[in-house]
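@channel sequence for tomorrow's demo:
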Amino acid sequence: MVQTKSIQGYKLEGTPVVDIPVPIVGNLINDELGKVFLAKLNEKFRGNNQIAYIHEVNENNPIQFSNIPRNLYANQVIREETGNTHVQSPEEMVQYWDKLPEKSFTYADSSAVSVFPREGPNETLRKRVLDILGKDKTEIPLLVLGLGVDPLDNPDSFTFTETPYLKVIEAPYLEKDQKVKYDPKTQTIVPSDDDTGVEIWTPSDQSGLRRAYRLRDVVLGFWGVNLFDSVSDGRVPFFQNPQGSAENLDIRIEELEAERDKQRAEVDSRYKKALNFLKTGKL
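structure tokens (generated this afternoon):
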């Protein structure tokens, strides 16, 4: 019988082979960054209780009651405050689906809204987004990320604004309910070619401006029309990209693989030389 008691708890000392930070997904909590977001949100939307944060939240507990204007404003604030952190996009939700915390019992609005070709719910905001994009219509569904939000005189309203973080993604996969996956080559969501992937729900009439959010661990929803809707299960999901690691990680992996292949080739060459020496006595 092999005796293993003497090596239990052994910790190998050495140098990590990957020396860059890795991306992190999580939910915004009431810490230093969370407090800055809540303070700015309440200052900007004072009196509008559908957007201002009127709920109590304990220190270092998750910030709850996700809705579209809150999460879009959170995206802008945490980008400005950190430079390397933002509210998750729908693409990041799909890409890191299996790593998202609290997924089984929470929902979370993304940093995007979905804009469909036909007139429909939230039409004033739909036209506002198209105007920001310099369009009067769209032929295919769009995901519009990084919009800002401003209050209106009506305490129950808001409007979208342009920010430096604005990004538009043509999203033909939103034309129907289906399963999708993240394609690392194109860095976009694409329809799944088998029964794996993340389920998405879209409006059958392809109309209006709607939410783009994760509904528990069940589905990504692009059909919701109430942009203010929020309950305690809502989260502000963040993606942190330390030192550009999301872009650099694939490059670093390629470098490691090239280094591995080079070392294998050198070992193979030495092996062949040693074998030849044993057989012939010549190097």
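heads up for whoever presents: The chain has a mean pLDDT of 89.
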